[in-house]
Design goal:
With 219 residues, this protein is mainly alpha-helical. Helix content is 65%, strand content 2%. It has one domain.
Length: 219
């Protein structure tokens, strides 16, 4: 397969994956499924996660089979810096896991409780990381992505994933505004979206004025 054809195939694979992922995550599709097949709703999140995971396999195969030429390769001091940032991002991801309801995120709790509602069950809550960035998982993932060595295929994938995080975070926030209204709008005004900014964060006092004792859906 030529480089142009493999790049086009990878591009289309990512576009198809993102379109399916966004559609299944949307309130419109969830509402449609709930009305047409309400008995499927307890397993919806489990099925969503399964489809999201399996859908990555063809893309990973394309990355493995057709990496293309090397675009850049970290070495020497730059490799130490890149890998250090990547390790810090992994640590950040692991640290923030404690602030999410794993059963809710995976869909196990919905299945166990036979939940048929469309809305996510977690309430509005701000973890320590959410004081500095609205989507900490997206931020840590971006650090991981852009600190890796880049082949042509990996660079295309990095650009696609970055674009999707930007678009996906906005789609996610439409749902959060639908769930939490003006309270989430005020939070958006105070805190940066994907990349922490020194002048946009919340103090602990400001957090207490915004939230109640519950949780927001993970980003």
């Amino acid at each position: 397969m030529s480089s142009n054809v493999s790049s086009l195939t990878l591009l289309l694979a990512w576009l198809g994956y993102f379109a399916l992922h966004s559609a299944l995550a949307s309130l419109a599709v969830k509402t449609w499924v709930a009305k047409r097949w309400p008995g499927l709703m307890p397993a919806y999140r489990l099925g969503f996660n399964a489809i999201a995971s399996l859908g990555l396999l063809p893309i990973l195969w394309l990355l493995y089979r057709h990496p293309g030429h090397v675009v850049w390769f970290w070495s020497g001091t730059s490799a130490w810096v890149a890998n250090g940032l990547a390790l810090a991002a992994i640590a950040g991801l692991l640290y923030t896991l404690r602030d999410y309801d794993g059963g809710e995120f995976l869909g196990v709790r919905q299945w166990r409780n036979q939940t048929r509602t469309v809305e996510d069950q977690e309430g509005f809550h701000l973890s320590p990381a959410h004081r500095f960035v609205r989507h900490p998982w997206y931020f840590f993932s971006l650090v991981l992505i852009w600190t890796r060595n880049m082949s042509e295929a990996m660079l295309l994938s990095a650009l696609m994933m970055t674009a999707y995080f930007i678009v996906g975070s906005r789609l996610e926030e439409r749902k959060l505004i639908a769930y939490h209204g003006d309270r989430y709008r005020r939070y958006m005004e105070k805190v940066a979206g994907l990349v922490p900014l020194p002048w946009k964060n919340l103090s602990k006092t400001e957090v207490r004025t915004l939230v109640c004792v519950s949780r927001i859906p993970p980003a």
